[in-house]
Amino acid sequence: MTPESLFREIDAGTFRPVLLVVGADQYMRDRVLARITETAITPALAAFNHDRFVAGESSIDTVLAAANLLPMMADRRLVLVRQLERWETKGDSEQAPLDRLASYAEAPNPSTVLVLVADSLDGRRRFAQLAKKADFVVGCEPMNERELQGFVVAEAKTRGHTIEPEVAALIAQLGGPDAFQLVDAVERLSLYVGPGAPIDSDAVAASITRLRVEDSWALVDALRARDPATSLAILGRVYDARDRGLPLLGAIAWSVRQLLKLQSNLAQGLRLDEAARRAGLFNPTRARELADSLRTARPGELELMLEALADADLALKGSKRLPLSVLEGAVLRLCR
């Protein structure tokens, strides 16, 4: 199940006796655990009804004993076990911790919510297979590009703001797969624009990076036109030494990837509106302009741009050269 489906169950007052919270997205895991902790037990009685363990530091006997206790003056107990993957190497016999957890999960204490947390778990193990079959796995894997964009929109809405899809996509690109960074970015934007105001490209340029969506596309256009003067002028205007140009480079790469997706979709015979939607381009005017510009694209042009941008990314992260010098070199390389 997804975290959202679990939240709906919790809001309806349903608590499963066993939950396996697994995945590499720490932000989402923390959100799941926070929601369970806030709602499963009465805060005033938490000292009596909330046990926390780390697999490998506490024994499986201790965990199961805690899970089998009856709640004190409350409806349920909460037992949390972190780093469950540390028990994967404890043998394959019936006494192995994960196998004993599987046996417990087949007939759990209904008055306990046993929450087991792991970055990942071997799907071949009996416990993992049982968790999947019985549907008590809460998946917290890193979000893909489209999910990240939706996450930004949802975070903005929670704070009372509207945000254009293209701006949300830019923020998702700048923050990458790290949900913590995205939440921090939206929070800063919310404080910048004020209560109820829309989050737009100008707000992103003012509070996250000096680059606006329009600047990114203008720079890509200048690079594709092999116009070094215009390209360097735009670069000089939007470069921010505080972040070494990494968000700027990421935004340019995002624009090129969107253009490449549009080109691929059109080559498959899709209508422009559908091709743009699948490419994550929601501005009809810009989509038409980009489609027109693709008619003059040189073979492999966009792939070569991404290759040059990837080289610049490596240089920014590992070279001792000045960041602006690295970016200027990449611009001149692309304008040859």
Q: Number of helical segments?
A: 17
What fold name goes in the CATH topology slot of the largest domain?
Rossmann fold
Strand order of the largest sheet: 2-3-4-1-5
β-strand amount: 5-15%
Mean pLDDT: 88
Query: What would the principal axes of the Cα set say about the shape?
Result: elongated
Specify Rg, calculated over alpha carbons: 25 Å
**CATH architecture annotation of the largest domain:** 3-Layer(aba) Sandwich
Total domain units: 3
Helix-strand makeup class: alpha/beta
Compressed to H and E, one letter per element, the order equals HEHHEHEHEHEHHHHHHHHHHH
How would you portray this structure in words?
- The protein is of the alpha/beta class and 336 residues long.
- It has 3 domains: 3-139, P-loop containing nucleotide triphosphate hydrolases (Rossmann fold, 3-Layer(aba) Sandwich); 145-207, Helicase, Ruva Protein, domain 3 (Orthogonal Bundle), CATH 1.10.8; 213-334, Zinc Finger, Delta Prime, domain 3 (Up-down Bundle).
- The protein is 58% helix and 8% strand.
- It is built from 17 helices and 5 strands.
- The protein has helices spanning 3-11, 26-40, 46-49, 60-67, 97-106, 126-133, 145-158, 165-175, 179-193, 201-207, 213-224, 228-238, 246-267, 272-279, 284-294, 301-318, 323-334, and strands at 18-22, 50-54, 77-82, 112-118, 137-139.
- Strands 2-3-4-1-5 form a 5-stranded parallel beta sheet, with helices on both faces.
- Helix 4 links the parallel strand 2 (50-54) and strand 3 (77-82).
- Helix 1 runs parallel beside helix 2 (26-40) and helix 12 (228-238) packs antiparallel against helix 17.
- The longest helix has 22 residues, at 246-267.
- It is elongated, with a radius of gyration of 25 Å.
